[in-house]
Specification:
With 136 residues, the chain is an all-alpha fold. It contains six helices and no strands.
Length: 136
């Protein structure tokens, strides 16, 4: 470790020096949010936005594959646990947004909007909790 980093109190670990399962799970979550947002724009007639979302999704797939190939075996074994947490976060985000849109909000939202917002809330929950876990 670099002397300046030690003096500043920075600690490097396996997750800060090499590709980590936590980061990959956030990237996969971003891909899922992109895919969950696609119906909203498609149903709304926003063809340009839909096309851009497809391009973003394809770019994310390329980055995810490249990142996976750089990961260590140790980090690859941690990925299933991170993906389970991502899935639970998406479910909680979906439930929160469904409750908000269908129970508390004055105007009803379409299912595609609730799906998009729920996926976004789930990814935020996952990313924030992953960051908190890394700081401990």
């Amino acid at each position: 470790m670099d002397r300046r980093a030690r003096a500043a109190g920075h600690v490097t670990s396996d997750t800060t020096t090499s590709p980590s399962a936590a980061r990959l799970s956030v990237m996969i979550g971003l891909l899922l949010v992109t895919l969950c947002s696609w119906p909203r724009y498609q149903l709304g007639g926003y063809d340009t936005h839909s096309g851009l979302l497809v391009m973003v999704a394809l770019g994310l797939v390329v980055v995810i594959i490249a990142y996976w190939r750089r990961m260590t075996e140790k980090q690859r074994h941690l990925l299933p646990t991170r993906l389970k947490w991502l899935a639970m976060s998406f479910v909680v985000g979906g439930m929160v947004m469904a409750t908000w849109h269908y129970g508390l909000a004055s105007a009803r939202a379409e299912w595609a909007t609730v799906l998009s917002h729920g996926a976004t809330a789930g990814l935020l929950l996952h990313a924030i909790s992953t960051g908190w876990r890394a700081r401990r």
